[in-house]
Amino acid sequence: MANITLFSQIISKLDRSVFSKLVKDKQTDKHQKGYNSWTHLVSMLFCQFAKSQSVRDISNGLRSATGNLNHLGIQKAPSKSTISYQNKHRNWELFKDYYYQLLNSLGQQPQFKRVKFRIKSKIFLLDSTTISLCLSLFDWAKYKTAKGAVKMHTLLDFDGNLPAYVNITDGKTADNKGAYDIPLLKRSVIVADRYYNDFSLLNVWDSNEVFFVIRHKENIQFNSIKENDLPENRHQHILIDEIIELKNKISKKKYPKRLRRVAIWDDKNKQTIELITNQMKWSCNTIAELYKSRWEVEIFFREIKQLLHIKSFIGTSENAVMIQIWTALITILVLKALKAMAKYNWHLSNLVAFIRLNLFVKIDLQRWIDRLFEENYDPPQNYIQGVLF
What we know:
Number of domains: 2
Number of strands: 10
Structural class: alpha+beta
């Protein structure tokens, strides 16, 4: 039996020295009175793990851990007014930068590496999700006449299914426009849906030696240059594999090079999926499987929306919303690191639920995630009472 709570052991996985350096660089503890940046981080992580619905829930939840707060690195439970004030005023970029720092440590474990493709390129999945907001409360989040929203443009690393880059914009920003700022890794491959079929964007990627696999739009105009031979007696879902050149003058000016077009039959949805890529050497089945793996980013969006507190917000300012989103990303990173370290084959939803029920239980974390349902307890001793008469 451990002497500290499950939540305290989870928090201990975070590198506090790196966080302290970020705090010093950004001066986020300047003029603070008791509620420092670390306490703020722990409070918002508690909000995510416990799925607290308000600042009152966070304050009361931490207050219920009397005697265990020192293990979390905080002196006392914050009041709800203090949490609200700092959510509005403390720089949200502190939590953004800390996420990327943790990604370089927790997110690089060997357990995260997956071998599904024989290609050497690093695989990234690109997509966005819209988080709806009430415009009357979040008046800064312009989207539609009577509706507000923010959009998360996410570049997901295929290994580990964790965001390598996130760009949060207002709901009006188009998917392709939000993708221009993503960092590009030479010789990597980006897989995306038809909303990223922007030839200017694709030309930027190609110029930086980045491969792409994109579902093209139905109205694309092209000339077929060469039709490649299809594999015999296998991969019957491949309909066509050809080299093309853009026909429209404006499009050709934006992307003057040749492209490869692969059409595949999706038997599950009974439809044809047409893809374009600048990779000429990989097999057409590899191209098809790469696009199929794009579904992982949809699963990621579903996980953070269903398992974490990201669909409703405890503060209405832009700063508060950004802090809650970035602490949600830190939480999903920690959860996936725990899942990767566990010997037990957890479903992420079960892991979240069990942690939520046992946050302040004192039990060894590693032993708990390794064999939660296989604990062997000593049977009670049988006492034989002698005959008195």
